[in-house]
Each structure stands twice: as C-alpha cells, then as structure tokens.
Specification:
The complex is a heterodimer of chains A (about 120) and B (about 110). With about 120 residues, chain A is an all-beta fold. Helices cover about 0% and strands about 45% of the residues of chain A. Chain A is built from no helices and 11 strands. In chain A, strand 7 and strand 8 form a beta hairpin. The radius of gyration of chain A is 14 Å and the shape is globular. The model of chain A has no long low-confidence stretch (mean pLDDT about 90). Chain B has no helices and 11 strands. By secondary structure, chain B is mainly β. In chain B, strands 2, 4, 5, 9, 10 and 11 form a 6-stranded mixed beta sheet that branches. Chain B is globular and about 40 Å long. The interface between A and B is medium-sized, with 28 and 26 residues.
Chain lengths: ~120, ~110
C-alpha cells in the first residue's frame, strides 16, 4: 500500500516569496491534516479536512497561509508571503477515522522542509 | 487550555536496557492517546495507542501505561536497541479527528 506522498521534499526561498506544498494521502482516507513542525518541537496542527471540507483551521495564519482539498483527495498548502519564522517541516497526514474512538491512527508523509532566508 | 507535554527532552539509555518515556496531558476528557516515533528526516510513525478505558497496553517490545488520576502516560521500550534512537511523541485526541502532539523526547541509545 502506498503511503502519504509529499512534494517537494526541500524548498529554500527568500522572505516575502511564495511557496506551495502538495500532498497525496493514502487512498480511501477521508481525513487529511497539515502540521507544521519547527525544529526541536512537536508537530502543530495547521488545518484538517474531512473529505473536501475544513474541520478545523483555527491555528492556520490565514493572512499568509491557505490550503485546499478541492476533490477530497490531494491537498495543497500555500504560504504567501513567507516569513523567516515559517522555516519548518510541513507534514501531511491522513487517517481512516472510524466511528469509534481508538481508530484514529495518523499516517504521515516524510514532510516538506522549508527554509526561508 | 489543552496541552500535552513531556517531562524530559533527552533520554540516554544503554543498549539492552529498558527505556521509559513520560508524557503529561492536561485534558481530563481526552479518551484516546497515541505514541509516535520520528526518525531523523522522516515523518512520525505510529507505535502504539491506548484508549482511556484501559490502563495498560502491550505491543512488541513496547508497553504504554495510562494513569488517568494524574493524567500521565508512559512508553516503555524493553531491551532498547540502536534502531530505537529517535524522537518520541505522545499525541492526545482533543476533539473529533483532532490530535495534539507534545514537544517530544529524544531517545539516544548508547552502545
């Protein structure tokens, strides 16, 4: 079974430039997450989708970050304009969330490492 | 507010010894917890989970203990191996489909 695919793996940009990350979740997984992981910290949830609808984007800096999952499968996360503090690994995860608690294992991609100079 | 934290940022263990990684959570209503392992340059990988109606769950070489009274989780790794070197995170289910991760503990296995 193919895992969660992300691209690009690495991106270096200058501040105020824009960048986009792409994620293809595991086939059949309805729930998709974008997490930001700053070096030395745990992943922080940015946004989660259930199919093509947003479930929670309360921690997404909406003045510069946007995300979409138009057909309920692939997703893109965009940052425009980027700031120095956006340097981080952006992790995409998907899950086959069951009705009962205890079936919510997240499957993560390898992440996209962003460096903002 | 909701938070999940870990007591120790780095844990060094001799190869072959047992490791214990701790995690505190603050939301007493949380009913599901997951431990993840993250190796350098990779995404977190599921290790083991536990529901709040359980105190203990065992996997292959790993055991998770849940103490709801003091809102504490621990991950025990038996006979720690070099391949266990990684950062370990606990994650708390904080709402429908929502998971909050702790800061992480780096486990170093000494030869």
């Amino acid at each position: 079974e193919a895992g969660v695919a992300q691209s690009p793996r690495y991106k270096i940009i200058e501040k105020r430039q824009s960048v986009a990350f792409w994620c293809n979740p595991i086939s059949g997984h309805a729930t998709l997450y974008w997490y930001q992981q700053i070096l030395g910290q745990g992943p922080k949830l940015l946004i989660q989708f259930q199919n093509n609808g947003v479930v929670d984007d309360s921690q997404l800096p909406k003045d510069r970050f946007s995300a979409e999952r138009l057909k309920g499968v692939d997703s893109t996360l965009k940052i425009q304009p980027a700031k120095l503090e956006d340097s981080a690994v952006y992790l995409c995860a998907s899950s086959l969330e069951g009705r009962e608690v205890g079936t919510g294992e997240l499957f993560f991609g390898e992440g996209s490492r962003l460096t903002v100079l | 507010g909701e938070s999940v934290g870990l007591h120790l940022p780095t844990l060094s263990v001799q190869e072959g010894d047992n490791s214990i990684i701790n995690c505190a959570y603050s939301n007493s209503a949380s009913d599901y917890f997951i431990w993840y392992k993250q190796e350098s340059g990779k995404g977190p990988q599921f290790i083991i989970d536990i529901r709040s109606n359980m105190d203990k769950r065992q996997g292959q070489r790993v055991t998770v203990l849940l103490n709801k009274t003091v809102k504490h989780l621990s991950l025990q790794i038996a006979a720690t191996q070099p391949g266990d070197s990684a950062v370990y995170f606990c994650a708390e289910k904080a709402g429908t489909y929502k998971y909050i991760f702790g800061t992480g503990t780096r486990l170093k296995v000494l030869a």
